[in-house]
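To assess whether ligand presence alters the predicted conformation, the chain was also submitted together with cytidine-5'-triphosphate. Input:
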Amino acid sequence: MPRKILLGVSGCIAAYKACEMLREMQRRGCDVEVVMTANATRFVSPHTFSALSGRPALVDNFADGADPIPHIRMAEECDAFLVAPCTANVAAKIAAGIADDLLTTCALAAHDRLLVAPAMNVHMYESPATRQNLDALRARGVRVIEPGSGYLACGDTGKGRLADVSDIVSAALDPAVEAPLERLPLAGRKVMVTAGPTVEWLDPVRYVSNPSSGKMGFAVAKAARDAGADVTLVSGPVSLDDPDGVKVVRVNTASEMLEACEEHFDGCDIAVFAAAVSDYRPRMRSERKLKKGVDGESLACIEMVENPDILATLASRKAPGQFVVGFAAETDHVVEHAREKLQSKGADMVVANQVGEHKGFREDGNAAFLVSDRGSLELPYMPKDELAAKILEVACDNFKVC
Ligand code: CTP
């Protein structure tokens, strides 16, 4: 049986991308029916969607005499209801349970299989009202596909651009969309994740750090959020936006990261330490810029002291039932080094990556070995989002038995 997707199109400029989405879902073997708001028809004609989907694109609850209760039929027939693009207004209506047209009526009727892909101006997206509405949807188990950042149709730059069509389609095709919130693997659980590098200042203009982009840790935080967890992400300086629906604590140094982690570790069920923490920091941090001539000696020979090991410190305080995941970035003997780190740091699982030129740092994908007392599992190269979901899946399985 082909997967049946109900595609809800609401009125914003990104409505034209829904045509592409429809085609992509068909290419991936789905049967797609379209429901539109009246405003959406001002951007793309229902005839376009009717022609592409091979069935009438509906707008009005009362238009089709042959189908007297279309919203119930449409909701019953679909495996997933994807509202894309979802405007601020439609998100607000769905959050409030307002059903004043066919699309929002379908959203109530198919509330347990609902995904929304918001698209709007950055200020509208960042408004407290929209944030609250999207948080409310998420808390009810609705999959909110985060918009991207960039140049927006209105001329502003920021977050609010409809997510990539292929990411939206993949989310709509994920069978987990139908899982009720309480059945999400991490529903009611707390997860803490560290990400990014730390910077260790020598003076106000110089620091010791590493090229970690934070992508892996951010991907783990998002995967944990999508699995229903309440997530705190402690991140060093990176250029990534705060993921929606995740509490983000931004820090700079390893000491600050330790302090933030200490605050959140005790209440968490799973802690994932993906940060590339600087192992050493300059012994002295000058308040003023060091000068070549005057301070040449301090610049030529920087004395370093070891930073606290955040993972080892917190793993040593692990309470029964807490599950700790570390990472190991290695250039060689990857699994052997990961086994050593599993022991020396007291982790329950270590995700070992090979690093080096064009491997690991800054890349969008990675391969990994998941090493625990149960053995090691090799994961082939895949996008970091997929890898993050896989890591959490294995962590959850282990967590249940720990
Ligand atoms: N880690 C940490 N605090 C540190 C150093 C590392 O929490 N001061 C954590 C990392 O977040 C990661 C794991 O320890 O989960 C391993 O980090 P890695 O850089 O691979 O190992 P190191 O402990 O730094 O050891 P080495 O550099 O000798 O490989």
